[in-house]
Write a structure and sequence with these properties.
This protein has 14 helices and 7 strands. By secondary structure, it is of the alpha+beta class. α10 packs across α11, α12 packs antiparallel against α13 and α13 packs antiparallel against α14. The longest helix is centred in the C-terminal third of the chain and has 26 residues. 44% of the residues are buried.
Length: 369
């Protein structure tokens, strides 16, 4: 997912420090800094992930009750069943913690291998460390659709090859292919090296060079360099979560699943920013938030990159794609309004059926009694 990798990063628990190789605890055998930064319990509503990464007391207070007040079997009303169905839907599409933990164990192995002498004559980039980024870092990954995205940071070599970003991508590709084991499959894309193991979530590794205080240079295609500022992005998403009356990460997961169920035309990072931009307009429940999201974007998909690097994040869409997505949004918006109407009339089974029509087969229908 190169489009997402370009601009999605996370700060670790150590104030944004990279997880570095060689920082091994002799008594436990673990990489202590990595374990501190990335010891997530993703299955626990993702709240612990976001709370550790962003330490937002306001966001915690606003979302603490979400999905806890709508537990199945509680004493709530039928209306609570709508909230419960949404929460069950978010649980269904959230990847298990084991997916991320296994991927990070692979990343640790790669990181430990990179400092070893190379068998190739590629330019000598020195590996500094890595950072988790993308949807897994923000708690917005969805099951069977999101890759684990990692930023690998290198020094800028003192050579003419540094003028060509392809040399860095080539270096990473060749070094990873030297990795022993034989089970990994590698594919080199425009900006990343994608690594996959049988039965595991793919890992997309974006190589980059530190540039200035906050920025990173990464291969932008055709040998050129592109730049991103992950810390600015983190600040932006933190601010937008604080502005929301719902758990914005969960709602983003749902919108991503809706996109996948309808052909996946919209890129992941684009969708995340679309949701974040209207966080303060979504209300305080997921049903209303869905209708408002569709209302706002029915006639336009343009949002600006909050890091100020890519401009209009919808620029990749063709005219036909824009029209198709607009038609889809309007259609789903009408269905969402029917669901809200059914809820207001206490026709809860019909409401849940309508939400399932919007979000797809993953939306639970277990609460239609």
């Amino acid at each position: 997912m190169p489009s997402e990798l370009c601009d999605t990063y996370t700060k670790g628990a150590q104030g944004g420090d990279l997880a570095r190789v060689g920082n091994r605890n002799p008594s436990t055998g673990s990489h202590t800094q990595l374990d501190t930064c990335f010891n997530f319990t993703c299955r626990s509503d993702r709240r612990r992930v976001v709370q550790r990464l962003f330490s937002s007391a306001t966001w915690q207070a606003r979302t603490q009750y979400r999905c806890l007040d709508h537990e199945p079997g509680g004493n709530g009303s039928h209306m609570d069943q709508i909230g419960s169905a949404f929460c069950r839907f978010y649980e269904e599409i959230t990847p298990p913690d084991s997916d991320l933990q296994l991927a990070l164990s692979r990343v640790r192995e790669f990181a430990a291998h990179l400092p070893h002498p190379s068998r190739t004559n590629a330019p000598k980039y020195t590996f500094l460390g890595y950072r988790l980024m993308g949807s897994y870092s923000r708690g917005t990954a969805i099951r069977q659709s999101s890759d684990v995205d990692v930023l690998f940071v290198f020094t800028d070599p003192d050579s003419s090859c540094a003028d060509d970003s392809l040399s860095l991508l080539t270096h990473l590709d060749e070094r990873l292919r030297e990795f022993p084991g034989g089970a990994a499959q590698f594919s080199r894309l425009r900006e990343v090296v994608s690594v996959s193991f049988p039965g595991e979530v793919p890992i997309d590794i974006l190589p980059c060079i530190k540039s200035g205080k906050d920025g990173y240079l990464f291969p932008g295609g055709s040998g050129r360099w592109a730049m991103t500022d992950p810390d600015s992005q983190n600040s932006y998403f933190t601010e937008r979560r604080d502005a929301a009356g719902i758990d914005l990460s969960k709602f983003t997961q749902g919108i991503k699943k809706w996109n996948v169920e309808n052909g996946g035309t919209l890129r992941s990072y684009h969708l995340e920013v679309m949701v974040a931009e209207v966080a303060d307009k979504l209300g305080d429940d997921y049903a209303s938030a869905t209708t408002r999201f569709y209302e706002i974007y029915a006639n336009g998909l343009s949002v600006q990159d909050p890091a100020g690097q890519q401009g209009d994040l919808s620029a990749y869409l063709t005219t036909r794609q824009r029209e198709s997505v607009s038609t889809l949004i309007k259609s789903c918006g009408r269905t969402a309004h029917l669901a809200i109407s059914a809820q207001n009339d206490r026709r809860y089974a019909q409401a849940i059926d309508a939400w399932a029509e919007v979000y797809g087969t993953s939306f639970s229908s277990m609460d239609k009694q």
